[in-house]
Write a structure and sequence with these properties.
Order of helices and strands: HH
InterPro entries: DUF397
Number of helices: 2
Protein name: DUF397 domain-containing protein
Largest sheet: none
Domain DUF397: 1-27
Radius of gyration: 10 Å
Strand content: under 5%
Structural class: mainly alpha
Shape: elongated
Distance between the termini: 19 Å
Organism: Longispora fulva
Helix content: 40-55%
Pfam family, one: DUF397
């Protein structure tokens, strides 16, 4: 788990919906960011 001070923490930056969409895209072979 990354620190809240770490702006590179995707888990903290993405909302639950966005994170789910990101994982779905990753499984589809399409990384977004």
């Amino acid at each position: 788990m990354r620190d809240s001070k770490d702006v590179g923490g995707p888990v903290l930056v993405f909302g639950a919906g966005d994170w789910g969409a990101f994982l779905a895209g990753a499984k589809g072979g399409r990384l977004r960011g």
